[in-house]
Design a protein that fits this description.
The protein is mainly α. It is 75% helix and 0% strand. Helix 1 crosses helix 6, helix 4 packs across helix 6 and helix 7 packs across helix 8.
Amino acid sequence: MDDPKTKILKASSALFLKGGVRALSVRAIADHAGISTIGIYSHFQGKQGILDALYIEGFQRVSKAMDVIKPGSDPKAAVLHACRNYLDCAEKFEAHYLLIFGHPDDDYQPSPEARNVAAAAFNDLTHLAAALLPAATTPAQRQDAAIQLWSVIHGFVCLKQHTIAKAVNMRYWKARALTTLEVVVDAIQRKGNTASHKGLVKRSRSRTAK
């Protein structure tokens, strides 16, 4: 049996999927969770606290999905495994994903703590992407690789969650996403290795000239 906090978050997720942030009144959440409104305030201090909890939980799930890099791991296989985990997470926890990556809503602004968790998740994605690149790459190059991966993953998730999914066959959307991601991963590795080789050649010529 779920504890009260879990019941509240599950109820909030269900209501959010039906009507967005505006559907999350304290009374509606309490009724859906089968607890008193006092219970809402005692656990989360109201609607803002609940939304922050969902927001933080959403990014923590994303970070956990990407935590696959181990010593000795094949970089390409590990990154694609992490991408698959991310896609599974976005599908299983749709309400969380819509909240953390949806359009801004005047009824909810993430707290500084929640924003810090979001920033940490992007750092985790950057660390994941760095596994595809030579050790000498710059932070900017690693972030660029992370954004390339993220844009593909997020694009497929958004298409799956959008109403357009009802108009086209999205049955194998994850397989399509992973096929596309493999192309992107190969391109990131190829570009990184080429840049690294050019850097080595340039340094070698510089030393020879001296």
